[in-house]
Each structure stands twice: as C-alpha cells, then as structure tokens.
Design a protein that fits this description.
The chain is α/β, with parallel strands linked by helices and 321 residues long. Helix content is 45%, strand content 19%. It folds into two domains: 25-122 and 247-316, D-Maltodextrin-Binding Protein, domain 2 (3-Layer(aba) Sandwich), CATH 3.40.190.150; 125-221, Periplasmic binding protein-like II (D-Maltodextrin-Binding Protein, domain 2). It has a six-stranded mixed beta sheet with strand order 2-1-3-10-4-11, with helices on both faces. A five-stranded mixed beta sheet has the order 7-6-8-5-9. Helix 2 (41-57) packs across helix 9 (260-274) and helix 6 (161-173) crosses helix 11 (295-316). It is globular.
C-alpha cells in the first residue's frame, strides 16, 4: 500500500508539473519549421497563421524554412527537438507520401510527433493541355489500356504526393503510365504546357490560372465529392475509378512527448485563428477548405495516409534512398 501511495504521489506531482508548464507556456520565442521554400502555399499558411497565433499566445514566432527531401529535413529536426512546445512543424499531405517511399528515414512518420490540428483541406486537379485528345479520365485510362505505358504524366519528383496520386490512379484503374519526374511542381506544369507529358495531377493554385485562361483543361478533381470551387469538374470516381480519393491537407505538429496541456493549448489557438474571418478568407484564397481537427483526428489521418502510400509504393516498386 505504501508503494501504491508513493506512486500516486509521484503521478500527482508529474500531473501538477505538466499543468503548471502549460500555464506558463509560452514564455519565449517559438520556432515554426517547414520543409518547403519561401513563397509556396505551406510557407504562406505558416506566416498567416503564426502572425495571429503570436497575438493570441503573447509570444513571437519565427518561421524557418528547411526545404529538402520532400519536407523531411524539417520533419526530422522537429522529431528530434525538445518536446516543450517551442519547436513546431507545419506540414502537408506530402509528409506521409514521401515517408512511405524513403528507405532510410531517421524518424517515425506518425509516432515521433504530437499532432495538433489541420488547417485546410483541398483536392488535387488532373489537367491536360487545351488541345489534348483526352476529354475525360476514362479517355486517359482507355488509352493507357490500349497502349501500355503510352500515356505519360509529370510530377514534382519521385515519391512526391503528385507522383503517388498518379500511381494510385494507375493501380486502381489497372493500367500503367509513364512517369516523368521534374524538379518541382511548377516545372511539371511547364512540361505539360509544352507537350512533354500528357497530364499532371497537381495542387489547384498553380494550374487554376491556366485553366481560367484556357491553356489547360481540368478533367477531374481527386476528392470523393466535387469541389465547391470547381463545381463543373467531375471527380475521378465519376470517371469510373471506384473509391479513388486523394485529399491534400496542411496542419501542425510538435515533437512526440509534448505535454498534453500544451498540445491542447496549441490546438485551441489554431482553431481560434482559423475562425477569424480575415484568416479564413486568406486560407480560402489559397485554394483550401478551412477545417480544424482534434489531435487524435489528425494522427488518424496521417496514419491512414501513410498506410495507403506505403501500399502504393510497395505495389509500384517505388523507393528513394
């Protein structure tokens, strides 16, 4: 009984210390890391969010770009950072996709993080040139079936979410496409416009201006339902690929072991900020549907997507050293 009493006392002290730490948090500068260059969607979201979170939490944020390995440089740094809430990560759906194909990861893609909340969701868009003979996803699949490896697509590189989304399409349709990797999404879109590849699956922001100008045609979106910003564009499921769904997201994480009161405080602050009309409007202008989650919901999302992309990588023999 004495041993049980001592254990209960220790547990109570630890709980008290954790709550006290959260009450004092934050009391100095917070670093927000991201694995992408300045100027992109994730970088813009990081800066919009941290500017408001600094007001709510009463401490300055510094956004630190650590591009490389599809975001893994930043993810690795945060995974190995002290779990005190002062080193955070903003990441996208590229995280589970890239980690599924990396052979020598130095962190666990799910378990080494305390998941905080998502910020926004959006589908990808499958586009072709304005003069393409393909008028639908069914046309692309039929051409690939008639001429195996005769249809090509461009991506932001091997193991990128754009690569994996097209591989999943091929696997679900029972066909193979020729993959042409580029040094980023912008180069892949340029390759599409110059006729080097037949289609791309990309994030909406860089292709929508070309769709509006008529230089590209959007054949489908990758969500389960039609996207409210492109209501006339069918889903890939409507094109005959049953159960196909790829949704991108952006969200926040901290190192695993971050005290739950700090996790809850950050989750509440993220939800407060995305509820501000000006922030919501800015995030929507970047193509996202603004939606927060609980930490548990975000962890489940990442785990499910990691399992999906691991299966695709294994079946398609995709691996990055």
């Amino acid at each position: 009984m004495a041993r049980i009493g001592r254990f209960a006392a220790v547990l109570a002290l630890l709980t008290f210390a954790s709550v006290a730490q959260a009450q004092e948090y934050p009391n100095h500068l917070i670093k927000m890391l991201l694995g992408f260059p300045p100027g992109g969607n994730v970088d813009t979201i990081a800066r919009v969010m941290t500017a408001e979170m600094a007001k709510g939490l009463g401490q300055q944020f510094v956004v630190e770009n650590k591009p490389g390995l599809a975001g893994n440089f930043a993810a690795e740094a945060v995974a190995h950072a002290p779990p005190d809430g002062y080193t955070l990560l903003i990441l996208a759906s590229a995280h589970p996709a890239a980690d599924a194909v990396q052979k020598n990861l130095k962190f666990k893609p799910v378990d080494d993080f305390a998941w905080l909340s998502t910020v926004s969701f959006y589908p990808f868009v499958l586009t072709v040139r304005k003069d393409s003979k393909y008028k639908s996803v069914a046309d692309i699949v039929a051409a690939a079936r008639a001429n195996p490896r005769g249809v090509s697509f461009g991506s932001a590189g091997v193991g990128s979410i754009l690569h994996m989304a097209a591989e999943l399409l091929g696997r679900d349709a029972g066909v193979q496409f020729v993959h042409v990797p580029y040094r980023g999404e912008a180069f892949a879109i340029t390759g599409l416009m110059t006729g080097d590849v037949d289609f791309v699956i990309s994030t909406p922001t860089p292709v929508l201006p070309h769709v509006k100008s008529g230089a590209l045609r959007a054949l489908a979106v990758t969500g389960k339902t039609r996207w409210q910003r492109m209501p006339d564009t069918p889903t890939i499921q409507e094109g005959g690929i049953k159960d196909y769904e790829v949704i991108s997201w952006t969200g926040f994480a901290a190192p695993a072991g971050t005290p739950r009161p700090i996790v809850d405080k950050l989750n509440a602050e993220i939800h407060r900020v995305i509820g501000l009309p000006a922030v919501k409007a800015k995030l929507e202008s970047l193509g996202g549907d603004v939606t927060g989650t609980t930490p548990e919901e975000m962890r489940d999302l990442v785990a499910r997507q990691l399992a999906l992309w691991t299966r695709v990588a294994r079946e398609s023999h995709i691996q990055v050293q």
